[in-house]
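Why do we care about 3D structure at all? Because function follows from shape, and shape follows, mostly, from sequence. That is the central idea of this module. The next example makes it concrete: a single protein chain, its amino acid sequence, and then its structure expressed as tokens.
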Amino acid sequence: MGVEGVITVIVWGIIVAFALALIASNIRIVPQARASVIERLGAYQATWGTGLHFKIPFIERVVQTVTLKEQVVDFPPQPVITKDNVTMQIDTVVYFQITDPKLYVYGVEHPMDAIENLTATTLRNIIGDLELDETLTSRDIINTKMRSILDEATDAWGIKVNRVELKNILPPREIQDAMEKQMKAERERRQAILRAEGEKQSQILVAEGEKEAAVLRAEGVRLTKIKEADGEAEALLKVQRALADSMKMLNEYPPDEQIVKIKALEAFAKAADGKATKIIIPSEIQGIAGLAASLKEMVSEDNTQTQKNVKQVKSEDSPNK
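And the structure:
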């Protein structure tokens, strides 16, 4: 092989290597959750999804490969003015997803800047219709309105806004100080109310306890009196029964005259022990009293005679000694 043959081989080798490199450079693999926008001679041709693709050299080109996953953008704080003329700083977080790569590439220049500016203007419009207190307590309402407005506006850009969140709401420092004082005063007021409610409940419970104690004491006194009355009634009933039984026995077994007279004397003796100055003595008791006096005289005479006999015996014994 001469010099010309070697040159020919080298040239063909270069051509083959160039062709292989050209073919390799036009083979594209699109990964999962991504999409590539293809132009042919400067015009939109197709959108490649996940897989292996081949583009025509020098005629077709990949304009942009975009991700189809949900993305999160945290925009810096934006100054907004409320309805009551309070300026505050609010930063937002936007969750979005590219649904149409073609519209995303050709719909707007610099989509992220467009979304940021749209978010800022939308936020100013919404906050401008709210007062400070409403702004601080209406996060969910603001988020919902912003998501609806941004999602509608970004449809033409092939973007779907899934969520919008207000990350921070920063009022001016003097407003924060006033709010802190207001919150402190509110907490102190609630504390005072709770303390008063506690004291009120305590007094109510004490009063209820005293009331129940008084009721129980009264109930105890009532039951005691009832028991005493029942006892007295039972005692009287037993006395009456005993009297009735004694009368019944007297009726069934009448005592003789001597027992009656003795009982009469006992009753007269008890009456005589009293403080009465005048005593009316029944005739029967007078007879009994006379009988008692005769018995007393007889006993006295017997005692006198006995004493005389004793003296006589003693005088007779004296001379003999």
